[in-house]
Amino acid sequence: MAAKRVYEAWKGSNKFFCGGRLIFGPDARSLLVTLLLIIGPVVLFCVFVARHLRHEFPSYDIGYAILVLAVLFNIYVLILLFLTSSRDPGIVPRNSHPPEEEFRYDSSVDIGGRQTPSLQFPRTKEIMVNGLPVRVKYCDTCMLYRPPRCSHCSICNNCVERFDHHCPWVGQCIGLRNYRFFFLFVSSATILCIYVFSFSAFYIKVLMNHYDGTVWKAMKESPASVILMAYCFISLWFVGGLTGFHLYLIGTNQTTYENFRYRADNRMNVYNRGCLNNFLEVFCTKVSPSRNNFRALVQEEVQRPTIQVISRDPEPDLSGDRRPKVEDDLDIGEDLLKISQRRNIEEIVDEDIRSRGSNGPPHSTSEVDSAMGSDRAPTIRSEARHSSWGRSENWEIASEVLANNAPESRSTVASEARQ
Fold first, then answer.
1. Which residue in 82, 118, 192, 307 has the fewest CB atoms around it within 10 Å?
2. Residue ranges in 176-255 assigned as alpha helix (H)
3. Do 164 and 181 touch, CB atoms closer than 8 A?
4. Which residues cross the membrane (predicted)?
5. How far apart, in Å, do the first and last CA atoms of the chain sit?
6. What is the pTM assigned to this prediction?
7. β-bridge pairing 151-153 and 132-139
8. Residues with Cβ < 8 Å from 379, sequence gap 6 or more?
């Protein structure tokens, strides 16, 4: 069986193309709608507006420049869209097992009321960022502590560094490695809308001058210009507003996720380094390389030794070998010792009476208590023998106690019987 590559065994919800060279989100089909919304208006503009403006300027070069610039700028926007949606946004590789250095055993109570140890992880831990403590969370899906500003995207099912949001229009998460291209795409789309709107309105003005008519006549002469103006005006509210919002986020060094989640907390932003440095961090720093090599072959994981969890309530050993006592049983060891001695002394007295016959009066419980001394446990009812302490493993203490104390107990009971 041929070894799989990383993208073929990927546990996230991403879609891969070109042998793992391109990575998209699970909603990559939305890109078709985005492409239609970008290419369609530009095609209309070139055919019904820019083509007629070639001869409206003293220099023909200006008229052709309007047409060529619209096509080139549209291609530039599409390239930025492709760079945003087809690259690794900053996915943190998953761990195949939880971090062992964070293991912690904790006791929990099950339905039966018995305490059993269970493996626990601290849900959060603090690390230092710019000299200030920042709390990071543990991700159960990726089995790692997320780096600062990292969050798990529920759509792509990945932890993404400097997670901003998941954009359905580009079909990809926006994170550390593609945020710069996302902002350039949105801002360039805003400029393209302004460009198309402006020259469509200019063409309406040209038609008004040619026909010495009103605006309505010019609009009837070129309905495509009116449609383009209305479309660009509506689009500007979206892409223009988004551009302004992300300018504010970049200036304050925030992400969309942080702005919406922590807006009401009034917490100090430990990542803010000043407006100028914040812009330099986004646009002038080198894009960090991807942590994932999607075309690499999947490495077979070395079998890790299983971690033995000691149960608080072990099953009886049917093989006859003694099992090590659980540490918690030592806390009640003294009580078990007294109960075991109590039970065995009573059995010895009963056997001694039966062997002697009915010559003497039966021994009372008080005589047995005196034989055991004042430090012995009081009389235990017979129900104690059937309690949860009466497991076979716990009563193994009695055999050792009987071996050490039986001769002394027999001599003590015999002397009392003669009296």
1. 307
2. 179-211, 215-221, 223-235, 241-252
3. no
4. 31-50, 62-84, 181-204, 224-251
5. 88
6. 0.68
7. unpaired
8. 342, 365, 369
Which tens digits make up the pLDDT trace of 156-200?
Answer: 999 999 999 999 999 999 999 999 999 999 999 999 999 999 999
Confidence of residue 105 (pLDDT cuts 50, 70, 90): low
Q: Can 156 be counted among the known catalytic residues?
A: no
- Residues ≥6 apart with Cβ < 8 Å to 239: 186, 189, 190, 193
The structure tokens 């449609």 sit at 227
CA distances 167 to 163, 164, 171, 229, 254, Å, are 11, 9, 6, 26, 17
Cross-strand bridge partners of residue 167: 172
Say how many C-beta atoms besides its own lie within 10 A of residue 23's C-beta.
25
Classified as helix, coil or strand, 254 is coil
Report which residue type is found at 42. V
pLDDT tens profile 229-288: 999 999 999 999 999 999 999 999 999 999 988 876 777 888 999 999 999 999 999 999
DSSP one-letter code for 94: P
Tokens of 173: 């998460």
Closest by CA position to 242, among listed 167, 303, 295, 332: 167
Q: For the chain, what are the domain ranges?
A: 6-91+172-284
What tokens appear for 244 in the block?
Answer: 């302004």
Q: What is the DSSP string of 288-352?
A: PPPS--TTSBPPPPPPPPPPPPPPSSPPP-TTSPPPPPPGGGGGGHHHHHHHHHHHHHHHHHHHH
Closest CA to 239 of 303, 295, 187: 187
Q: What is the largest CA-CA distance in the chain?
A: 144
Are 39 and 74 within 8 A, CB to CB? Answer: yes
pLDDT on residue 264: 67
Q: Long-range pairs for 248-253 at CB < 8 Å and ≥24 separation?
A: 250/183, 250/278, 250/279, 250/282, 251/275, 251/278, 251/279, 252/278, 253/278, 253/281
Q: Is 19 left (phi over 0), alpha (psi -120 to 50) or beta?
A: left
Which tens digits make up the pLDDT trace of 18-60? Answer: 999 999 999 989 999 999 999 999 999 999 999 888 877 877 7
Q: Position of tokens 């055999």? A: 399
Residue 48, C-beta contacts closer than 8 angstroms, at least 6 positions apart: 222, 224, 225
